Amino acid sequence: MEKAKHLLKTTGKILLGILVFLGLIVGGFFIWLQGDPEEITECQADYRLFEHALGISCIPNNPERILPYGTAPSQFLVAIEQPMAMTTVGFDVETAADIPGLYERLREVNEGVLDLGFVEGTAVQNIELLLQIQPDLIISEWAASEDVVKTVELVTPAVLLTDSGDWKEITQRSGDAIGRSEQAQELIVAYEERVQILREQFDDPADVSISLVRLWPDNYWVMLENSFSGQIIQEVGFSVPPPQLEIDDQVLTFNSMQIRFSKERYDLVDADFILLFPATTGQVLIDTGYTPRDLTEEFQSEPLFQFLEAPQAGNVLEAGVHWNVTGIYSAHAVLDDLFRYVAGVDPEEVAPNPLRLE
Fold first, then answer.
1. What's the pTM value of the predicted model, to 2 decimals?
2. Which of 76, 97, 233, 341 could in theory staple to 322 by disulfide, Cβ–Cβ 3.0 to 4.6 A?
3. Burial class of 91 by CB neighbour count within 10 A (0 to 12, 13 to 18, 19+)
4. Nearest 10 degrees: CA dihedral of 341, 342, 345, 347?
């Protein structure tokens, strides 16, 4: 009897979720059909106009239940001590990027908010979950289709910050969206000051070539100049191996951020310094049966790798996943690595990390 009651209760929840989801989809479909005959020019009280990558939306003047969609907005919210509308263990782990102390800091800032544990998918893709969270603003780092945004906006205002992929722009626009523009600007300026000090450690940074290799179990990727870490390398002024500049656009993936390569194309990564980092966090890798150390050892065990310039000079750095996770904390952690292992100086002596948590 109890099993039957439990089954009925579970079935009822599923049906309710389906009905809610279908209702929102249908509503979103009709909104899409109607289009936007007139551009929004004014908002109700306590809301303001905000222009973003998909147009103009009305967003709250002082949002309190903010749902970030992406690691750059999430790291920004932690840096300014702004609680989020929810935390999930899986996304928290990704946002923290294995940076010492950041996971604990993230949890401290968000103490008391809705904690959903491990959740499949994201709130933007899960309307039932979105209704449970009840945010008053979604700020999205990633590109989402116009149909998705219009459907989500039946529940809460949502803004797509930028489609450029520039983490600094995403951070600044996150601040703009929640009324914290000055704090975002201050964080970016502090980062840029450290970039300038790093640049000054070299007669000419362009004389130093760096390759960024992202490691998955059994496959390897070169991160290019449009990637998060590639943008930082380019901003400091380091160069990359010439073959990376000759890659055919047709073989690029993920918005021209990376390309998969095999041992037959080690010329793509033959540089003064090679930085190896896992594609995801150590906690996530456990499920694959690998650790970050396993990945770097496997890559370096290839016989042809030993003939490259960096391993012969002892200039191979086993870096962390922060090289692949966008955000202000990750950017400073990347600079720490560059100061320490490429410039050969202690960052805490020449340009202390303002977001260091240890």
1. 0.85
2. 97
3. buried
4. -80
